[in-house]
Design brief:
Elements (H helix, E strand, L loop, with lengths): L9 H12 L17 H16 L3 E4 L5 E5 L11 E5 L13 H17 L7 E5 L13 H6 L5 H5 L9 H8 L14 E7 L4 H5 L3 E7 L1 E10 L3 E2 L11 H19 L5 E3 L3 E4 L5 E2 L2 E10 L2 H22 L2 E10 L2 E2 L2 H14 L3 E6 L5 H4 L5 E6 L15 H21 L2
Parallel strand pairs: 3-4, 3-5, 5-16, 6-15
Antiparallel strand pairs: 1-2, 2-4, 6-14, 6-16, 7-12, 7-13, 8-11, 9-12, 10-12
The structure holds (2S)-amino(hydroxy)ethanoic acid (HGY) and manganese (II) ion (2 copies).
Length: about 425
C-alpha cells in the first residue's frame, strides 16, 4: 500500500483537460477538431506522450497506433496482469474538450497520485489512448480497441480507406504512430473507463455518478442512391429518378417508421448526406448518406435494420433508382463486469455521491476491451445532455468527483490483489 495516502491532483487534471482541449481548436466553427490520424490528432498524441514521460511512465505504441503509458508495479509483474484505464483523444468535428480526453487524463491523474504517494502500485497501471474511437474518417468506430481486442484484423484495419481516400496505415506512418507492439500484447486484469455521459439522464435526475453496466448495440451503414440527372424545370415528376428525393424519403422513413416502432429505445441518425452534382437546378443523379441505428436490445436493432432494408427495396422500385448499401460498423449490445460495477457503486456510495446504474447510449472503447478483460465504466453528468458539440460541458467539481471514484476503485482493486 502507498506510504502516503493517495490523493488526486485536481488542478493538474483540469489544467491538462484545458491544454489538450486547446489543441486543434477551431475558432471559426467552435470547439476543437482532432480527427483520427490528422495533424491535429498527432499534436494531441505528442502532448499526451510528453505528459506520460513527465510522469516517468514507460510509453509503448502498438501497430494500430494505440498509445500506452505504463506505471510499473512495486515487484516484477510475473503472471500478474496490469490494471488498465483508457479511452481516446481523437474527436469528431467541432467537438467538446471532454469526450474521451477526460478518461485518458484521469488515468494520468491516477498514475500521478501513485507517484506523489511515493510507492509504486501493487500491480502495474496502464493508461491507454486508443486509436480512432470516433470512426469519423475511418470506419468502424472504436477501431483501435477493436483491433486490440482481436475483433478486427490488423492488416484489414491498416488497409482501411478513409472518407478522404487516405489509407489508415499510411496515415499512421505519416504521423509517426505506427508502433512496434503487437495489439493485445498487454492483457489487462481489468479495464476501467471514466467518461462524460454525453446524454441527459444524470443531470435530469440530479445524480453525480453513472455506474455503467451495459452499452447499446450500434449499426452503421453507408447508403448510395443512383438516380438520373435531369433538368429541374423541364422534367415532369412522373419521369424523374430523383436520388435526392429518394434519400430524403429514406431519412423520413427512419423517423416515421423505424424509430416509431420502438420510440423509447431505437435511435436513427443520418449525420452525413451528399448529393451529386449538388446544384440548384439539376435533379440529383446520386445521393450518398449514412445511417446510424442504435438500440439496447439486439432483436429490436435487427428489426430496425430489416425495416430499413425492406423500405430500400420499395423506394428503389417506386422511384426507378438503384440503391447500394455498405456496412460500416455493427456491434451488438455489451454487458460490463458486474463485480466492477458493484465496486464503482460502492465507491460512489462511500463518497456520498448520488448515483444510478445505466446503459451507455454512446459507443466506447470499454465495449471492445470487455472482450478480453472484465471492464466497466463510470459516467459523470453532461450539462444539457450535450456532446459532440463545442457546448459540451461538465462542471469542474463533477469532473473531479468522477476522477475520485476512479482513483478509489483503482486503489481498492489493486490493494485487494496485492
Ligand atoms: O459513435 C459513438 O457512439 C462514439 O462516439 N464513437
Ligand atoms: Mn468518447
Ligand atoms: Mn464521441
Amino acid at each position: 500500500m502507498p506510504t502516503a495516502p493517495l490523493s488526486l491532483d485536481a488542478g493538474a487534471l483540469l489544467e491538462q483537460l484545458r491544454a489538450l482541449g486547446a489543441i486543434g481548436a477551431d475558432a471559426a466553427a467552435g470547439g476543437r477538431t482532432r480527427i483520427a490520424l490528422s495533424d491535429a490528432d498527432k499534436a494531441g498524441r505528442d502532448q499526451l506522450v510528453q505528459w506520460m514521460r513527465e510522469l516517468r511512465l514507460e510509453v509503448r505504441v502498438d501497430r494500430i497506433g494505440n498509445v500506452f503509458g505504463i506505471l510499473p508495479a512495486a515487484a516484477p509483474a510475473g503472471e500478474r496482469r496490469p490494471l488498465m484505464i483508457g479511452s481516446h483523444i481523437d474527436t469528431v468535428r467541432n467537438a467538446g474538450a471532454l469526450d474521451g480526453c477526460y478518461g485518458v487524463l484521469a488515468g494520468l491523474a491516477v498514475a500521478r497520485a501513485y507517484r506523489a504517494a511515493g510507492t509504486p502500485p501493487p500491480r502495474a497501471i496502464v493508461v491507454a489512448a486508443f486509436t480512432n474511437e470516433e470512426g469519423v474518417r475511418f470506419q468502424p468506430d472504436m477501431m483501435g480497441s477493436l483491433v486490440y481486442a482481436g475483433g478486427l484484423a490488423l492488416d484489414e484495419a491498416l488497409d482501411t480507406l478513409g472518407t478522404d481516400g487516405a489509407r489508415l496505415g499510411d496515415e499512421l506512418q505519416r504521423i509517426g504512430y505506427a508502433g512496434e507492439m503487437a495489439p493485445g500484447a498487454i492483457v489487462p486484469g481489468e479495464y476501467l473507463e471514466l467518461h462524460i455521459e454525453q446524454g441527459p439522464v444524470l443531470e435530469a435526475e440530479g445524480r453525480l455518478i453513472g455506474v455503467v453496466e451495459s452499452l447499446q448495440g450500434i449499426s452503421w451503414q453507408k447508403i448510395t442512391v443512383h438516380g438520373t440527372a435531369n433538368h429541374a424545370g423541364t422534367t415532369p415528376t412522373r419521369l424523374r429518378h430523383d436520388a435526392g428525393y429518394a434519400a430524403a424519403a429514406i431519412v423520413a422513413f427512419l423517423r416515421e417508421h423505424v424509430v416509431a416502432a420502438a420510440p423509447d429505445t431505437t435511435l436513427a441518425t443520418t449525420g452525413s448526406l451528399r448529393l451529386e452534382p449538388d446544384v440548384v437546378n439539376v435533379i440529383p443523379r446520386k445521393a450518398v448518406f449514412t445511417v446510424d441505428l442504435r438500440d439496447p436490445d439486439e432483436a429490436r436493432l435487427q428489426a430496425a435494420e430489416r425495416r430499413l432494408a425492406d423500405f430500400l427495396v420499395q423506394i428503389a422500385a417506386r422511384e426507378g433508382v438503384r440503391i447500394e448499401t455498405e456496412r460500416l460498423a455493427r456491434f451488438e449490445p455489451v454487458s460490463f463486469d458486474a463485480g466492477l460495477a458493484d465496486e464503482i457503486e460502492a465507491s460512489a456510495r462511500r463518497f456520498g455521491f448520488t448515483h444510478r446504474r445505466m446503459t451507455s447510449g454512446a459507443g466506447h472503447d470499454a465495449q471492445m476491451i470487455a472482450r478480453i478483460a472484465p471492464a466497466a465504466m463510470i459516467f459523470v453528468p453532461s450539462r444539457g445532455g450535450i456532446s459532440h458539440n463545442p457546448r459540451e460541458h461538465t462542471d469542474d467539481a463533477q469532473l473531479v468527483q468522477g476522477a475520485q471514484v476512479l482513483l478509489d476503485v483503482v486503489r481498492r482493486r489493486l490493494a485487494a490483489s496485492a
